[in-house]
Design goal:
alpha+beta, Rossmann fold, Immunoglobulin-like, 5 domains, six-stranded mixed sheet, 12 helices, 38% strand, disordered N terminus
């Protein structure tokens, strides 16, 4: 039945995304992966007998000894039964041999592989041919899965499809082929009882439809074509008074067809599915995702909770408008195990697709062909003229095609028919596929150990020639080259009787390999196999492998990699070697001693291209040219022992200056320390360096990564830059990239228009605070004291100058202490080169002038007194605060007082008493 339900563009995009993910998962050919594993499972450089090959399902029907090989340690490996390939008129040195009595015959077809010499030294043509056979000897069971929904009346589809099914049976008719028929609509039409509920009336009212379906199935396998033909309906449920059974329950139909084939012992199991619509029923999806089987509720009793949809809509309803709701099913949720959350299920297609995925994983030996008959875009929208609506939506043709592909064995088994009258063309294609002995076959053809494929850059159709007995056989055939495994992969082969495909390409002996021997037979390829059918991924058929020999190379050429500054050897430098016609001859990596052999090279011109430089060095972008002539390696017109290539070490350079605007005025700052840190590398030990007298630092031989600079110590007397400087990126070619647009600020810029980071420091500004206090009680703060501050900074040069110890001091300013005894000077230059002098010019009222000048400077923003011994009784310092003491002035009593005489009398009396005591002491000592 055609899709009668349909959604908004948003719903359509969601369906498209879901289908895309599913198709990506089923498009990956499992046979290719398994074949690659098998291709390396045994060495082809040993004597391989047919017994060993039989373990790999070979079953050669003729010339069984052809895949035996002779191996001689001094001469190489070649087929036991061999014959020479052609011999070039121009090239008498190169030779090739291949197996006699080809092609090899297998159950699925015939395989041929040969090698031929060419006019060019060490170059060979490889010819590989695959031919199909008649495939009627195998036992086949075919299930016709037929959609008999009500829409099959359109264009008399039901009648025409019946005849096409008979056409298939007639053309496949053999004693070894049996058939069965599963016909479905809203359920399987095998005479079963049905029970459906119509809630379209609204207001929670509903109508029940129940009864028995007609029996349009044949659920046993039979070779009697007429028995199947008699069961194929020419009418639809609506014409058989079962209109409410006229939906499309694709999922249930697939499950029934698989049920029949699971018990089959046939060699080939086939489903041919014919439908004219997207599903309008599906089973309730409960869980999916997480690389596990999707889980459904298969409860079908009385249209139980396990069945979703009502036969008229692909989409589920998202509207709540009543009473006219014809599509009673609303969007529901299922657990997405990969995200561990519930997600909305918008239509019947998604559950059906997941069921098909389950089926294909569990039954890889069953081929499912699907034909979409006259499927077109359907659009349903609400209008006031209608008394009901289907869930609104649009299903575009690309989404329809993706759905058909998802329920088929692969996209190649899905077909979209535009007109039922033209369906015979599709039917014939399916018949051909069934009759083919090779279905979706794959050839894996690895290069031999001493052989390289010849290609111009990236592998393309220019590097091979593909022909066939009929060009239509090349439709869907793809040829690729796996660089990592060095193998050609040929996929999409579908061949029957007298049908063949042939592949031709060129290879070259790798004479630059140090192990190459000119008098040795090398196998042109490793084990080359055909997987005849992607449904049997573990079955391989072997080609016989040809062998080739060429001429001995002239001399061994060695490369040496050194530093351009120190000439020390550099390891891990990667090169590619090319000849004069730009053919790549090999890849090489220097060892710890900086050397690597380029192999034995014949006379000619060569060039090296550095691909990856040693860590900490800049990639050499130019080709390194040299030649081999008269048995010597020649570089720059000189005979050399080594082809020598030097690299320049990369570096991050810093210029440290003050903040002068002009570079010519800049002062270079030494003593600044910088740390170079690497992002996201716990094993990296930060590099620390200090600027020299020119303010320079250079970090050399920096490995690839992202770095930041951090100033960990500022020059004396300058402010430290707190922000990290970066990011500075060193790429895999060793090039250092400094993002000047991001670094440009008041502190960082380019120096002298070079790749040098100028980092500017501002002079460190300090402050000095004077606290004027009483000499006896420092808690008493003295206001009104006047001070002058002088400095040796020539920027303050004026006529108010003092000279002390040969140093000129210039007046900065004069200030008085406030009512808290404090006066201060700010924005003073810091650093030992800046000297300061404080002079008290006027004492606070009632106090004496200190009379001592205080000399000081700043270090790390802390004031230090230079003449501390001279002023320690007068001044003390704490950080940036200097406390200066002043003594009180004590005055004699004024007139009208007691005068000085009492004090003089007391003093005289004290002196007299002292003299008397002294005299008595001496007299007493004499008497003793």
């Amino acid at each position: 039945m055609n899709s009668k339900g349909i959604g908004t563009k948003k719903l359509t995009s969601i369906i498209s995304l879901i289908m895309t993910v599913i198709f990506l998962s089923i498009l990956l050919p499992t046979n290719l992966i398994k074949a690659e594993e098998k291709s390396d499972s045994m060495s082809v450089e040993k004597v391989l007998d047919s017994e060993m090959y039989n373990k790999f399902n070979n079953e050669i029907l003729n010339n069984k000894s052809s895949i035996n090989y002779t191996t001689d340690n001094n001469q190489g490996t070649w087929p036991v039964n061999w014959e020479y390939g052609n011999v070039s008129n121009k090239n008498k040195i190169n030779k090739s041999v291949y197996g006699k009595n080809q092609p090899l015959e297998y159950n699925e077809g015939y395989l041929t592989k040969k090698a031929y010499t060419t006019d060019e030294d060490n170059v060979f043509d490889i010819n590989l041919k695959i031919q199909g056979k008649k495939n009627q000897s195998l036992k086949k069971d075919v299930v016709f899965l037929l959609d008999n929904s009500n829409s099959m009346t359109t264009n008399n589809r039901a009648i025409k499809i019946k005849e096409q099914i008979k056409n298939v049976m007639d053309k496949l008719n053999t004693n070894n082929t049996r058939y069965a028929l599963v016909t479905y609509a809203s359920t399987i039409l095998d005479g079963r009882y049905y029970h459906l509920i119509d809630r379209s009336i609204g207001d929670n009212k509903y109508t029940v439809y129940k009864g028995y379906t007609s029996n349009q199935c044949y659920l046993n396998f039979t070779s009697n074509i007429q028995e199947i033909y008699n069961k194929i309906p020419t009418t639809v449920p609506n014409q058989r008074n079962n209109g409410y059974v006229g939906g499309t329950f694709t999922q249930e139909g697939l499950l029934k067809a698989i049920e029949l084939l699971k018990n089959s012992d046939a060699d080939e199991k086939i489903i041919i599915h014919l439908t004219d619509g997207l599903p309008t029923f599906s089973f309730l999806l409960k869980e999916f995702g997480g690389n596990e089987k999707a889980i459904f509720d298969y409860n079908t009793q009385y249209n139980g909770i396990g069945v979703r949809g009502f036969g008229t809509s692909y989409f589920f309803n998202t509207k709540t408008q009543k009473p006219y709701i014809y599509s009673r099913e609303e969007v529901y949720s299922a657990l997405n195990r990969s995200k561990n959350k519930y997600e909305a299920i918008w239509n019947n297609g998604f559950p059906t697709t997941l069921e098909a995925e389950n089926i294909k994983k569990e039954n890889p030996d069953i081929n499912i062909y699907t034909i979409g008959i006259e499927l077109k875009k359907r659009v349903y929208k609400w209008t006031d003229n209608r008394q009901y609506y289907d869930a609104e939506g649009i299903v575009e043709l690309p989404e329809i095609r993706k759905f058909l592909e998802s329920i088929s064995s692969s996209p190649a088994e899905a077909f979209l028919n535009e007109n039922v009258d033209d369906i015979d063309e599709i039917i014939n294609k399916i018949i051909d596929k069934i009759k083919n002995s090779i279905n979706n076959g794959t050839v894996i053809d690895p290069m031999g150990n001493m052989v390289d494929i010849i290609k111009s850059g990236e592998f393309s159709d220019k590097d091979y020639k593909l022909t066939a007995s009929n060009n239509k056989l090349l439709e869907g055939v793809k040829v690729g080259y796996n660089e990592k495994n060095r193998q050609i992969v040929l996929t999409g082969l579908n061949l029957g009787e007298n049908e063949w495909v042939e592949l031709n390409y060129k290879v070259r002996l790798n004479t630059s390999n140090p192990d190459f021997n000119g008098d040795f037979w090398y196998q042109a390829n490793k084990r080359t196999v055909l997987n005849p059918n992607n449904k049997e991924p573990n079955v391989f058929r072997d080609f016989v492998i040809p062998s080739v020999t060429g001429k001995r190379p002239s001399i061994e050429v060695k490369l040496k990699k050194i530093s351009s500054e120190t000439s020390k050897p550099l390891a891990n430098s990667e090169f590619e070697l090319y000849n004069s016609i730009n053919e790549k001859l090999g890849s090489f990596t220097t060892k710890e001693n900086g050397e690597v052999s380029l192999g034995y090279l014949q006379e000619g011109d060569y060039k090296l291209k550095e691909i990856n430089p040693p860590k900490g060095y800049i990639l050499s972008k130019d080709f390194i040219h040299f030649k081999v002539k008269n048995g010597k390696a020649i570089q720059d017109e000189n005979e050399v022992e080594f082809i020598t290539v030097s690299n320049i070490p990369n570096s991050i350079r810093i210029k440290k200056t003050d903040d002068s605007k002009l570079e010519s005025d800049a002062k270079f700052l030494s003593g600044a320390k910088f740390e170079l840190n690497k992002v996201n590398d716990k094993n990296f030990k930060p590099l620390v360096k200090e600027t020299d007298d020119k303010g320079e630092i250079e970090f050399k031989e920096i490995e690839p990564g992202t770095y930041y600079l951090k100033e960990v110590l500022a020059p004396n007397g300058y402010e430290q830059i707190k922000e990290d400087i970066g990011p500075i990126v060193v790429d895999n070619t060793g090039v250092v990239t400094i993002p000047w647009d991001k670094l440009k600020s008041n502190d960082v810029e380019k120096w002298n228009n070079q790749e040098i980071i100028r980092i500017k420091n501002k002079k460190l500004k300090s402050a000095i605070y004077i606290d004027k206090v009483d000499a006896i009680n420092p808690e008493i703060k003295l206001s009104g004291a006047k001070f002058s501050l002088y400095t040796n900074d020539e920027n303050y040069k004026n006529n108010k100058k003092l000279v002390r110890n040969g140093i000129n001091y210039y007046l900065i300013s004069e200030k008085s202490s406030n009512d808290k005894g404090r006066l201060e000077w700010e924005n003073l230059n810091s650093g030992e080169e800046y000297k300061y002098l404080i002079q008290e010019t006027e004492a606070p009222k009632g106090y004496t002038v200190s009379g001592k000048e205080i000399l000081f400077h700043f270090k790390d923003n802390i004031a230090l007194i230079d003449n501390e011994n001279d002023v320690k009784a007068l001044a003390s310092i704490n950080g940036q605060v200097i406390s200066i003491k002043n003594a009180k002035i004590y005055k004699l009593p004024s007139s009208g007082g007691i005068g000085v005489y009492p004090f003089l009398l007391i003093g005289t009396l004290c002196m007299a008493l002292s003299l008397i005591y002294s005299f008595n002491s001496k007299f007493s000592n004499k008497k003793k």
